[in-house]
Structure formats: structure tokens, C-alpha cells
Design a protein that fits this description.
Number of strands: 12
Radius of gyration: 42 Å
Distance between the termini: 199 Å
Shape: elongated
């Protein structure tokens, strides 16, 4: 069949139109492929709480400032970081440190505290055998004292001596107790220790990592009085004659470096045989009156101050006036001494 000129032109136009459609279709396909390859990523699945915690911890640690250059450390905490509850992790009342728990920190125990408070020293030193022997209902100073410290003694045996029965005994005794109030800071910290270790043991009875030493103190530091060691006990209103004297500090201290009496530093010394006992010598005074007594440890000033009173000595009172007509002049001893006459030999 022959094709005329007009027919050839129509064929040519149809071929070009078809070619254009094919080109547009190819472009569309290519765009679809590109868009499929570059499609925006789907929203990630929500992470687990543990992964969130790890990410937060990582960011926090990365944002934390670099540690400062090492310097001398203070063994006594500042007063602003010390409370009486024993609940804060810094106090070492059973705060978690990975898989381990903190042991009780220093009380510190006042030498004038009753025997129940002195049991805290044995617990702090992990002297479980001595603690077990010392705990007695006759020496308990609170209604729940014997039950509480029996639980403490049991947990000490369980943790330090591996006594499996200690866990059971501590749990039985603690179930009948309530947490002591902040005013009983030593008992409260001991209670928290038992509760923390029992909770950790219930979660993982097969592991018992050694505890780390607690930081800070269980009770607030403070200077409360002086004890003349005369059997009268400590007092918040100490006094003496003008000669001063030797006194024992009363209060709670980690250490005592300086004692100021009337603004002047005086000597202070620790009794190596009795931890927590600090002795100070109050210097003599020329006249009666009052002076302030303050103390400081290696961590800074210790809260509290005392007013010390110098009393007039009895023998220093004014002598009564002699009766009139009697001379008060001192005789001339040299002129009144009889002369010995020499012999004529």
C-alpha cells in the first residue's frame, strides 16, 4: 500500500508523539525510583526505659565539667552537708553503688552518749562479735532499742561473717519496728542500714558484695558543752576559777584541730585510747568574766559555741577593813630585829 505525502506526515507526527510519551513515562519512572530510594526514614520504635537511662547518663557525664586538680582532702564534712536523718545517699546508710551498698558512716558518737549510742561505734568498725556481746536489754535507752540493735547485730553477722541465719533474724526483728525519728540520728541510720541490706538480699540472695565505706556523718556535728571530769557530766554553761583548767569537749566531732577561748587559740589533744574524746586546757584569766569558746575541725568551723565563765576565786575576795586606831603599816623588820652585843672577849 502506498502512502501519500499527507499520510507520511501524519505517521511522522504520531511517531514523535509516541516518542514524547515514552520519554515522559521514563522520567516519571525514574522520579519514582529516586523518591523511593530517598524516602524519609520511619520513626524509630520507642526505646526501653533502660536505654533511655543509659543515654541520659551518657549525656550527663559528657556534659559534666572536668574534675579539678587533686588537692588535700578534708576528712570532716562541712556543716551544710550534714543532716540528722541518715536518709541521704551521701550518708552511707545503705545507698546503692552499683551492686554494692554503703556501710554506716561515722556517727560521730559523743563520749557522753548512753550505751545504746556507743553500740554504733562497734557497728561502724564492723566489730560484729563485740556488738553481739554488747547489745543488752538492760543497757537499751529506748523502748525499741534492744530489738533494733539485735536486728543490727544480725545483719552485721550476715554481711561480714556470712552467717545465713542473720538474714532471717534481722528480717524478723525489723518487721516489728518503725524507723526512728531524726532526733535519734544514730538509731535511724542503723535502721536504714538493716532495711537496705535486707531489700538487696531479697532481690539477689546469691550475691553479697562487700560494702563500701559510708561518707559524711549520721548526725550533725556540733560543740555542745564542756566536761570538767568531776563526775557532774558535761554542761553547756561551763565555768571555773581564774586558774582555768582541763576539760573534755562534749558534742559530735570527726576531728578537732583548733579551739578558741576568748579569741585566742588554745591547745587541744585527742585521747588515743578513747576515740571521740578531745581534751582542751582553758587558760588562766586575770579577772573574772565571760569568754566565748568555739572549735574547728579539718573541714572548717564546727557549729556551736559556748560561754565560759571565769569566777572570782574565794581567796581573792577583799579583806575586811581593820578596826579604827590600829595601824596597818608593815613594821620595819630590819629596825625591829634585836641587835646582838658582842662580848668584850
Amino acid at each position: 500500500m502506498s502512502v501519500g505525502a499527507d499520510g507520511g506526515g501524519k505517521v511522522t507526527m504520531l511517531w514523535r508523539a509516541n516518542t514524547r510519551e515514552l520519554s515522559l513515562g521514563g522520567v516519571a519512572v525514574a522520579l519514582l525510583l529516586i523518591s523511593a530510594c530517598s524516602a524519609p526514614p520511619q520513626a524509630p520504635a520507642p526505646s526501653s526505659p533502660s536505654s533511655v537511662a543509659i543515654s541520659t547518663a551518657t549525656v550527663t557525664s559528657a556534659a559534666a565539667p572536668a574534675p579539678s586538680a587533686p588537692g588535700p582532702s578534708n576528712s570532716a564534712p562541712s556543716a551544710s552537708t550534714v543532716g540528722a536523718s541518715g536518709d541521704e545517699p551521701a550518708r552511707g546508710s545503705g545507698a546503692n553503688n552499683g551492686s554494692s551498698l554503703a556501710w554506716v558512716p561515722p556517727g560521730p558518737v559523743d563520749p557522753a552518749d548512753p550505751p545504746q549510742a556507743q553500740w554504733y561505734v562497734l557497728l561502724q568498725n564492723k566489730d560484729c562479735a563485740s556488738l553481739d556481746m554488747a547489745v543488752s536489754p538492760r543497757k537499751a535507752s529506748s523502748a525499741d532499742g534492744f530489738a533494733l540493735w539485735s536486728a543490727v547485730s544480725s545483719i552485721c553477722r550476715a554481711v561480714e561473717q556470712g552467717d545465713a541465719s542473720g538474714w532471717r533474724d534481722a528480717a524478723t526483728r525489723l518487721s516489728a519496728l518503725i524507723q526512728p525519728g531524726p532526733e535519734r540520728c544514730l538509731d535511724r541510720t542503723a535502721y536504714n542500714l538493716v532495711a537496705s541490706f535486707l531489700a538487696a538480699h531479697a532481690q539477689n540472695p546469691t550475691e553479697s558484695p562487700p560494702p563500701w565505706n559510708g561518707s559524711s556523718t549520721a548526725c550533725p556535728l556540733g560543740l555542745a558543752g564542756l566536761d570538767a571530769l568531776d563526775g557532774q557530766g558535761p554542761t553547756g554553761k561551763p565555768s571555773s576559777g581564774l586558774a582555768g583548767g582541763r576539760f573534755q569537749l562534749a558534742g559530735r566531732f570527726v576531728d578537732v584541730v583548733t579551739v578558741m577561748v576568748g579569741g585566742q587559740p588554745v591547745g587541744v589533744e585527742a585521747d588515743p585510747a578513747r576515740p571521740g574524746h578531745w581534751m582542751v586546757v582553758i587558760p588562766p584569766a586575770a579577772v573574772a568574766g565571760q569568754v566565748q569558746v568555739t572549735a574547728a575541725g579539718s573541714g572548717g568551723p564546727i557549729p556551736g559555741s559556748l560561754t565560759f565563765t571565769y569566777l572570782r576565786d574565794p581567796e581573792a575576795t577583799t579583806a575586811p577593813e581593820p578596826p579604827r586606831g590600829i595601824s596597818t603599816t608593815t613594821p620595819n623588820i630590819a629596825s625591829s630585829t634585836p641587835q646582838t652585843s658582842k662580848g668584850s672577849g
